[in-house]
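Notes continue from the previous slide.

Worked example: a multi-chain complex. Inputs as given:
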Amino acid sequence: MAKKLMKGNEAIGEAAVCAGVKHYFAYPITPQSEVAEYLCWRLPEVGGVFVQAESEVAVGNMLFGAASTGKRVFTTSSSPGISLMQEAISYMAGAHLPAVLVNIIRGGPGLGGILPAQSDYFQATRGGGHGDYRTIVLAPASVQEAVDLMILAFDLADKYRTPVMLIGDGMIGQMMESVEFPEERREPNNPDESDWALNGAKNREPRIIKSLFLDPQELEDNCLKLEGKYKEIKEKEVRHELYNVSDKNRILIIGYGTMSRICQTAIDELEEEGISVGLFRPVSLFPFPEKELHKEVAKKNIKTVLTIEMSTGQMVEDVKLSVLGIKPVEFFGRTGGIVPSPDEVKEKVRELL
Amino acid sequence: MAKKLMKGNEAIGEAAVCAGVKHYFAYPITPQSEVAEYLCWRLPEVGGVFVQAESEVAVGNMLFGAASTGKRVFTTSSSPGISLMQEAISYMAGAHLPAVLVNIIRGGPGLGGILPAQSDYFQATRGGGHGDYRTIVLAPASVQEAVDLMILAFDLADKYRTPVMLIGDGMIGQMMESVEFPEERREPNNPDESDWALNGAKNREPRIIKSLFLDPQELEDNCLKLEGKYKEIKEKEVRHELYNVSDKNRILIIGYGTMSRICQTAIDELEEEGISVGLFRPVSLFPFPEKELHKEVAKKNIKTVLTIEMSTGQMVEDVKLSVLGIKPVEFFGRTGGIVPSPDEVKEKVRELL
Amino acid sequence: MAKKLMKGNEAIGEAAVCAGVKHYFAYPITPQSEVAEYLCWRLPEVGGVFVQAESEVAVGNMLFGAASTGKRVFTTSSSPGISLMQEAISYMAGAHLPAVLVNIIRGGPGLGGILPAQSDYFQATRGGGHGDYRTIVLAPASVQEAVDLMILAFDLADKYRTPVMLIGDGMIGQMMESVEFPEERREPNNPDESDWALNGAKNREPRIIKSLFLDPQELEDNCLKLEGKYKEIKEKEVRHELYNVSDKNRILIIGYGTMSRICQTAIDELEEEGISVGLFRPVSLFPFPEKELHKEVAKKNIKTVLTIEMSTGQMVEDVKLSVLGIKPVEFFGRTGGIVPSPDEVKEKVRELL
Amino acid sequence: MAKKLMKGNEAIGEAAVCAGVKHYFAYPITPQSEVAEYLCWRLPEVGGVFVQAESEVAVGNMLFGAASTGKRVFTTSSSPGISLMQEAISYMAGAHLPAVLVNIIRGGPGLGGILPAQSDYFQATRGGGHGDYRTIVLAPASVQEAVDLMILAFDLADKYRTPVMLIGDGMIGQMMESVEFPEERREPNNPDESDWALNGAKNREPRIIKSLFLDPQELEDNCLKLEGKYKEIKEKEVRHELYNVSDKNRILIIGYGTMSRICQTAIDELEEEGISVGLFRPVSLFPFPEKELHKEVAKKNIKTVLTIEMSTGQMVEDVKLSVLGIKPVEFFGRTGGIVPSPDEVKEKVRELL
């Protein structure tokens, strides 16, 4: 397919179409309503369906129901809407159901504002719902990467039978970039060949999809099954990217999503000033690239680690858990919809030097 | 007041009465329905009201509404019910509203089971809702402590104008212990003297309680106000307890809530075997006693830190963030409603030695 | 009690207080929100409670739940809100639960407008919900009568264990009139003496309140029990009023509620012109004063019956069912919030003459 | 198309497919869940969609939303579910939206039972929602007629832009009969040619679909527009059927739906006994065949009119409004899921003779 200039929110919708998705449930909320606007005409073109539910609570339960049939399902929302889905996400995790949830984060807490933020990091990576579960979390930094990670998200959801969350912000949703889509594919998880989907109990035993296990040993077994899954995910699905990393760095910046691009600008400008700074960008937030980051930080030229977030500091905990005290971990953040500028990043770097 | 033999769930209800609470909103869910059963007759005796709402989503919004008037409000629920309140908790935090939420945790994720667990630690301490907010989290280990921390919870909620969560499990809810209540007190936060409560705009300017700030600078200011609050809380409201801690310890166990009592039994039995193990029990989970734990772990006799939880490992992250790599951090957990036995704890300790 | 100048909506609230009501559930909607505004401070003064529910659907179910305990319960709403309660009203009727519902009717259908109308007559008198049930319907024409009928409504609800509806419109809700309240009374239906209320199964067999009867004979028995109740109500609870009725009348006007007062003005003015017209005002709409009206219409001086409503014609069916063809039944109505003026009434009368 | 043996519920589903329907919203409830079971696989075959909503309230609002786009929409439910849709039905009527609602009536009120009944007659014919509106109501007596009336229902809904209700009971839903479907048709109301549908405001002025009219004159105009529509419907859309009607009848039975078939059996058996009884079967309940019935009743051989219903008496009011006192109107009914037998009908006839 030829390159195409597209808004991030629309590209996210088209990526789902490429991933063979036919079932999209959502409730409108700024700054991601364009996904629904796009899919409400685009999905029918490919035989798909968009249901605007009564509320985000309903969306969560529709995801559960449709996912049970073995079909690819997804939703998009923004911070408060994602909070309303926490019970359902926990249920889907407990029932081993694949689903993709996109959170175009807005400033919070509460109603907050509609401008970009990264303050739902804890909710996404620790599981805002109850119980021993996690969701894979992916954080694109460009429209093209949003497309690629969306398609990956559906593949990972199917492979591990788990909810996968893709988080971005209004910048990525609104910015227009040139983007390339893969050849369109049919829905890869053919429910007819599934050994778990509720696809009609013809010529086979009935199946049950549930998260209720009143026998504690059965429930622990289910939790351990989940735990085993997360262990495998931590081994195989860690993704990160380096930028301007070299022996000349004294400071290593950690940033993700659109924030990492602003850091890149700052890094480029600092390089011209003769200050060499590297960037470690986690692409998967869960699993967090713990070992990979530790290895980079352990390099003797690195004196300080600087975490930069559009929040009051959340990923910084994962950074500390990776660094484990071998180097000082500093933090700089703006929040509530205010995006740190390259100048602020540069100033913070100079201050640390 | 004389000592009284009482079930944990009922004692939690009576503690709220002692704290002057008149407004309780809840929806029944095992294993905490006795709180509602108790308060549905007890609250009217003191002029209070219990509203059984349509759902936990409604409960969350009733808490918001009632708290806005300056009255003490609280709810009790269990894991899935608390997940449904995540949006409202974020809203209350963002609007600086005091409220107390009790989570008698059951095994999860999803519907899970009804037996004791500690697998909602992340949800409680990281804020399962969206945005830059935290809730104070307290974890009692006995019925008496549940009573004391309930009363403290209301005081902290008022002092910092923030939601406070008390977490326990079915053991603490069901066990009967002798318990002493303080002299009954009137509601301490007199709404008439409040400078923020919506208590009727007579002879004063109208007030607004909200979490919506469309101007990003206003929203960041609100987040920084919250951040300042959490900083003060981290300085002043850290609580923990030590048990059998001495120079003879080689291993320091970290456990909270009812789990810590099982650890104590194991520690007592190990002591008789000549193995000396100390226990560090966080009482406040947010703020986590980071410095206090670091100090204990730094003692040279300590070789290993052993975190024990009724989960697949959640508090262990806070332990690692406190220990910061100076000593190895081990983990042992059972989950899904299965409670580690003293024998299992002892075996794990011996294994580490 | 001395006379007091009061708005209709507030007087309705105070009347409920006089009737000993302590439990009021509602959701705000124009043009009756003043009832909630009044009761939110007035009820607590007498130890009562107002719960603003999540929606009118929730209100309906809260009425059911609270009524089950034998306490007097009520709600106030306006047209769309009452539509949302139709399932719950049917459930309460089927379960023989007393409750009072006030509908301050606004123009409809749909969102309509907020001005006075009588277009919910069918819904009120035929049961907008499903199944063989009716509700007693009372229609006051003045603020004083609203007070008197409110208190009667609670007595009838208790006596017959049935939902009772009081219908009015924005005129009666907003107009200020001098009104007298009875001496305040305690809640007359003492749940402790009830033989059906769920008041705690101490020293007695458990009771069940339900509308589910899977055995068709049991369900028919329940319907016949209801039917027997309605028969008794039709015999004993018919209420109406005559105005200017005499042998000189050629035309008998039928009007209810505030519409009847406008008819009285027209009748007074016509009398001065030498045209004598009588007014028959049904006070109970169900039971409709069928025989009483038939008797009046049968008088030989009456040539024509003129039904006047603030709707496109609903009560006119009950008039026809009463008149049964012995005289012509004419109709005049305005709707959608437009109130027929005395001049329009007079013109219609002259036209018929 | 060749004849096919089919259950009523499934035939109703297939009839909707024949009518070109692609949008079906529902929530399961006995005794009509087979419609949803059938359409959940049948609709996708023709490119259609079935959404199982969160509740019947949500179903009603989804109907409103989808109907606004000019597409054919419908739902099926049973008594309590239909009660929950009363607000939405009123909104659709007020906004002039076409929709078809099927009520497979179960015994009520409340939860009632799951066996056949006709006790939602008032709700259907008088509009259980608020305001001056009506819905066309059709009552088939056989599976074939259910199919024919379903297709007619969609045509009438489109023609008059109004909700149309088709009512039946569990007998018609469960019985298997030979049935013939028309050639499959495309959706007749092409939204692209519509002058009101919200089909995308390209190259034209935006359109608004609403039921809110704050200006009372506008609201009255809307009510009069509805009134005009109902007048036209009463003139053109009256449907009824006669059975065994002749000069020999002394008694005329009025029965509709499946009840009329039991009456036919009784009539056949009475005929053999030498007792000639006619049957007047209203097919449209609104508009009720008032004049047609009056004409039949006026025939001098008719001494008594006997209304038979599976309720405690609801249609009997429409019968009385048609007969207007010229002959006595008797009633016989069973309710709560009990269906009158031919013997009971015969006995009642003999008793009247």
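Summary box: Chain A touches chain D at residues 47, 49, 51-55, 57-58, 61, 65 (CB under 8 Å). The longest strand of chain A covers residues 99-105.
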